[in-house]
Request: fold
Amino acid sequence: MGFWKLLWTITWFGGLVVFTYLWVQVTRFGWRDLRVLFRTVEADAVEERPR
Amino acid sequence: MDPLAHLNLSTNFGAVDWVIVILFLVASTVAGLYAQRFIRTMSDYVVADRAVQAYLGVATIIATEMGLVTVMYSAQKGFTLGFAAFHIALIACIMALIVGRTGFIVVPLRRSGAMTIPEYYEQRYGRGVRVLGGLILAFSGILNMGMFLKADSLFVTAVMGIADPTALKLAMTIMLALVLLYTCLGGMMAVLVTDYLQFVVMGFSLVVVSVFLMLRLGWGDVVSGVENLLGPAGFNPLHEGSVGPTYVLWMCVLGLVSCGLWQTSALRASAAADEEVVKKTFSWGAVGFLIRFLVPYFWGLCALVYLGSQPALRDAFLHATGPGAQEVSLRAMPIALAQLVPAGLIGILTAGMLAAAMSTYNTYLHAWSAVLTQDVLAPLLGDKLTERGRIRFTQAFMVAQGIFLLVWGLWYQLGEDLWDYMALTGAVYFCGAIATLVGGLYWRGARKAGAYGSFACGFLALLGLGPVKDRLGITWSGEAIGLFALGMAIVVFVVGSVLTPRQPGEEG
Reply:
């Protein structure tokens, strides 16, 4: 049972730390990606608009 | 009758928490409606002009794959299996990492340019396979989604202390209507904007509540509590008192399916800007696939330890039997959290969980409706549908799904753990899809006769559902039936492909 306890302890704390890091990164750069997406969609719409 | 009706179940949910929840709901809806201004074509509506970058892709894949229903069924597994349930999370993470690093399935799918998986079927096998594949995918997905509202309402009832069933149904209907409103109008753009917002709120509440529970109960006490209540089976999934090796193998299949073959994940591959973004999204998404199970498992086993230590609650939760037993174990986590987490924090938790629910509803409503329009209706009408017509039909399918969710959630009596219901209803689709999609992408000899046969085999998985097993007197476990259906689908696919020659419209 010692092996399983160790495995699940590492999985839990490792998972929580990595997810917290990911949350910070995605919150920060996801906002930037969202603005890029808006600009791209708007630029494409201007290109496609009939003259 | 409610088996917990005789218990006096308190909650810490107060006025501050109501304010937090209402503010969040308003912000989500406004953000979703804002996205409507960017929709001009079906490509904008379905795959957001294929311009999604990696971090936004990660936010949206995690927000989607972690619904409130995920939290509920995972907490139930944590409550019933203890730490042994962690193996499902670890397997899901490893499978997503493999898919992300190798690009298995998702990269060739992105390269094909298909917006949906059935669209790929048409490129590879012909129109008939696309229509049948689309129908089965939507049927399986909508059936799978059928329990979402029920599970979510059990959470809301327990945490907010809503006792009146009519008020509860009204609250859930309003929430569903808000999601329907912005998803119908804003399509994939609304899904992306709201998913980002919901990822931020949900991620914050997952981490904060988990840390709070560790401090409140103590890690050592949780471990020893599980050991006292479940013994070695609470840690070792291969132990005879736990799930066993067949179940672990079934979880490996599900791990692969949920990141590589499920339409809501595949849609992320289709919407990505390029192949590198696909790989990055799925590699980082692996952390999401781990955490979406791991955190609720932990909350579930905290509920087990907490309720196990309360003499007044212990018997009602730990020794529940009969038809309502599954519902009791589903309600264990929210009832325990409502008593453990203080006012203020429980409002953030509820907002986070409503975020999880809304981000899953919007993608699921959007994904299945897009499949029904693009892959069933449009091909059947000979591609005569205009862009505007397609968007209108997609919106109509979304509303129909919303009505189904309300009706099915109230009618179906769970005969198994919720996670196992999800796995079996999903298997109707993925048993055939594993063979057809993987075979199509990687084997030149794949043929449409094999595809039709493997789709038919997927329906064998329905034999694993509790009420069906009871009626037919089947004694096999649900996971054994699922693996049997998958094996049959692969065999039939290979035999059907080998025995039939290539036909017009087929590649290879």
In short: Chain B touches chain A through 48 residues (CB under 8 Å). The CA atoms of residues 73 and 425 of chain B lie 14 Å apart. The mean pLDDT of chain B is 85. Chain B has 22 helices and no strands.
